[in-house]
Amino acid sequence: MKKTCYLGIDVGSVSTNFVLIDENEEVFYELYLRTGGKPINALSAGMKKIWDEFGGSIQVNGVGTTGSGRQLASVIIGADVVKNEITTHAIAAQKEVPGVRTILEIGGQDSKIIILRNGVICDFAMNTVCAAGTGSFLDRQAARLEIPIEEFGAYALRSTTPVRIAGRCAVFAESDMIHKQQTGHSMEDIICGLCHALVRNYLNNLAKNKELEEPIVFQGGVAANVGIVAAFEEILQKKIKIPRHFNVMGAYGSAIMARKQIHKTGTKTAFYGFESALEDYRAKSIECNDCSNMCEIIEIHCGSGPVACWGDRCGKWSGRFVESGIRKSV
Fold first, then answer.
1. CATH for 1-97+244-278?
2. What's the pLDDT tens digit per position in 299-308?
3. Residue closest to 84 by CA, chosen among 95, 105, 70, 103
4. Upper half-sphere CA count for residue 49 (Cβ side, 13 Å)
């Protein structure tokens, strides 16, 4: 008998994550892949890995997509739920830490804060402008210092006299680190100072005028950095909780929402099957000149023509093309 499950997919600029949950909303499989600027390739690779791992032993009864590429994933995979990252991260955090009131999330290219009261999102903020403090910035600094990113946080914990690093800008932070190296400060003190600077930057940009109440959950790939976690706890003087699936929480939340949607409506899933991700998909951008909005329309092509498009403000193009027999079910 096939195992019933629900699939969650989070397509981001840095990583594309997949999660499979069972009927009890427990994760039994998770996959973290680098997007590498090619989200369609990442989706295909992820679906192939899941199929190679489970084959015909699972039955996907629902699919949810999230992240900056959620619409793209929905077109290719066939999603029942398409939600933004704020919602899916909050859903997953409440599953992992019941009663959570504050969610700190730092991903590869952006960061966000979510405030919940009585299980309802009452405030949030996102930072997509500056790279300082994101996973990609930390990866770059680790590479420049020739330190494995997995050991970056451990260096910070060994510091005895952290230096002050300017953390409000990625360029200035890197320049300040180089200056501190030239003046003879230890690697441990510089890295610890950087962790504190990035946390201060995060709190100043996203948490201003917000009351950060416990339980506080820290998720996203940067939550694996023990130096950043320690800096948050020291500056906030509060305990930070790291959920079990901290690096795939968006995908986890979307899978939970897919399960709830299918159970609520009693409908059959829109999932096209694992083979659908292996089709030859291509993205094309066109500009609509029919009005002063000058919308940039994204078309997804498969086979001889487009299968979906979005990006318009008036609704003229959205949903214009429908699936026409190119999907296959497995």
1. 3.30.420.40
2. 777 766 677 7
3. 70
4. 16
